[in-house]
């Protein structure tokens, strides 16, 4: 799962015993060499779907981390791009890896639960960040995204189908979430990261409550499960005009 350039077990342990913000500050220099970074096939697939919907003028990468999603915005945005993240360490790496050309990119340190923007964006994307928010935080999070989108603007992100009960993936994610709950019960500050808490049915309901129209786009590159349902979808939530 980890390359030789990735973090050591000790470094991961120190990160896991830190807050979310400080933990990612520590992990930032080696984050792109971990399985926590969104895989390139997912980024490319989302970009292709957004190209069918766009183009857009201004784009925001919510919880941008080291900037993997910025290239998605570069492919569909014409004027300007912004990345926002709570970790100064992750933003520092993102700045370093920003390539020349395309729309200008601005990096902003901020909390997704209190975004420092007005309604300035036509597209907001996010990749791999929602496990850091408890279910009770979703209404406020989606309200923040709604507030920074212009009327008709889109909020897009991929969602992977949950592992089948009893499968190796199911037990692995259950074990991880259980370990995190035990850790947060006995250690402070908490490190919120739960893979099984972000359920599509709940997400869709809360997006609608926040004032979005919600569509689901199948990402065909990832195939279908035995029951015919897609393995991966892209949620596209449109702010009503």
From TrEMBL:
It is an enzyme of class 2 (transferase). The keyword GTP-binding does not apply. GO terms for biological process: methylation. InterPro entries: Methyltransf_25, Methyltransf_Superfamily, SAM-dependent_MTases_sf. Its EC number is 2.1.-.-. GO terms for molecular function: methyltransferase activity. Keywords: Methyltransferase, Transferase. The keyword Methyltransferase applies. Residues 60-153 form the Methyltransferase domain. PANTHER family: METHYLTRANSFERASE, METHYLTRANSFERASE DOMAIN-CONTAINING PROTEIN. This is Class I SAM-dependent methyltransferase.
């Amino acid at each position: 799962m980890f390359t030789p350039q990735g973090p050591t077990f000790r470094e991961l342990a120190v990160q896991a015993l830190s807050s979310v913000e400080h933990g990612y500050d520590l992990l930032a220099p080696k984050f792109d060499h971990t399985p926590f970074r969104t895989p390139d096939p997912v980024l490319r697939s989302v970009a292709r779907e957004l190209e069918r919907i766009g183009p857009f003028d201004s784009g925001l990468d919510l919880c941008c981390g080291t900037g993997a999603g910025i290239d998605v915005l570069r492919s569909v945005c014409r004027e300007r791009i912004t990345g926002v993240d709570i970790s100064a360490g992750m933003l520092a790496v993102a700045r370093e890896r920003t390539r020349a050309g395309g729309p200008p990119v601005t990096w902003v340190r901020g909390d997704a639960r209190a975004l420092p923007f007005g309604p300035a964006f036509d597209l907001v994307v996010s990749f791999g960040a929602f496990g850091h928010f408890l279910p009770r935080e979703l209404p406020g999070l989606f309200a923040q995204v709604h507030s920074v989108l212009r009327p008709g603007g889109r909020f897009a992100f991929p969602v992977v189908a949950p592992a089948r009960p009893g499968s190796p993936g199911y037990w692995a994610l259950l074990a991880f979430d259980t370990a995190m709950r035990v850790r947060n019960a006995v250690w402070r500050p908490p490190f919120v990261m739960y893979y099984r808490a972000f359920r599509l049915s709940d997400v869709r309901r809360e997006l609608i409550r926040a004032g979005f129209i919600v569509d689901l786009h199948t990402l065909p590159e990832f195939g279908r499960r035995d029951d015919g349902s897609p393995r991966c979808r892209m949620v596209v939530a449109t702010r009503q005009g």
